[in-house]
Amino acid sequence: MADIRTTTQAGRLFDRTLRNLRGTWREIARSARIRFAGGSLRADLPDDDLTRLRERMQACITGRGGEVSARARAADLGRSYLGLSEARLRDALVAPATRLLTQFTTLPDGVKFLVDLRADVMDQKGDPAMAALDGELRRLLASWFDIGFLDLQRITWPARPPCSRS
User: Fold this and answer.
1) What is the DSSP letter of 107?
2) DSSP assigned state of 154
3) pTM, whole model, 2 decimals?
4) For residue range 9-50, what is the model confidence (pLDDT) as tens digits?
5) Helix axes 128-144, 110-122, angle to 10 degrees
6) CB distance 137 to 104 below 8 Å
7) What is the pLDDT of residues 152-163, one digit of tens each?
8) Cα dihedral across residues 23, 26, 31, 32: positive or negative
């Protein structure tokens, strides 16, 4: 019973937090009078909206127009995020490098290839591009080899039948 109450309270707190964030983001965007061209994004994030979302994210990253403009762009991006379907958004936020690396898992010995690739990348510590690739590989492999996914089994020696001499 306590678990249900805790879950309900957490849900209400989450809903209230989202309402407050939406209001704050709306107010920031209104005060700066900045809106992204093209209006709001559709919840299922079709490809044309995905392109616009990436452009919005890039605009936030570059930070042109000063502090107020940057805050307004971030608020609008946050409001767009809250209106999106979670599954489609998760797909959209996967880094291109991660998408490429996960394609290797469909190949025979693909995971071994990625482990070997990480070993090679780790040997080239001075190169910033290799450091970024190492970070992607580390995160990807850590998520696959998380301790929660391990299945421990006892290893035993099978009993050997007695040797027969003829």
Assistant:
1) S
2) -
3) 0.41
4) 666 777 777 777 777 666 655 544 444 445 677 877 788 888
5) 140
6) no
7) 788 888 777 766
8) positive
